[in-house]
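[Meeting: bench + compute handoff]

Bench side (C.D.) handed over the final construct sequence. Compute side (W.E.) agreed to return the predicted structure before the next meeting so the bench team could plan truncations. Sequence as handed over:
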Amino acid sequence: MKQTLEQNAKLLGVENCLTQTMEECGELIQACNKVLRAGGRGKRPACTYEDAMTMLKKELVDVGIMIDELKYLLCMDAGELERIRQVSLQETNDLIFGKKTRGG
C-alpha cells in the first residue's frame, strides 16, 4: 500500500495534493456535522446515525490518506511530527484539566 500511496502522491503533485486535502477536510467537517445531527443535535439529517458513522469513518480514512501523501511529498520527518504531536497532546491535556501550558 505504501507504493500505491507514493504513486498517487507523485501523480497528484504538491499543489493538487494540498487542494485535495482541503476538499477532504471539508467532507470530514460535513460528516462530523451529520453524526451530531443524527445523534439529535440540530436539524435531523436524511440519514441514520449508522449511515452517518459510516460516512465519518470513510472521511477520516480519506483525510488520513491525504495527510500521508502530503508527508511523503513534502519529505516530512516522522520523528519531528511525532514530537510536535506529543506537545500538542500535552497542551490539550493541560487545557482540559486546567494546567498551565508550556507557552502560557
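W.E. noted at the follow-up: Residues 33 and 52 are 9 Å apart (CA to CA). C.D. will use this when planning the next construct.
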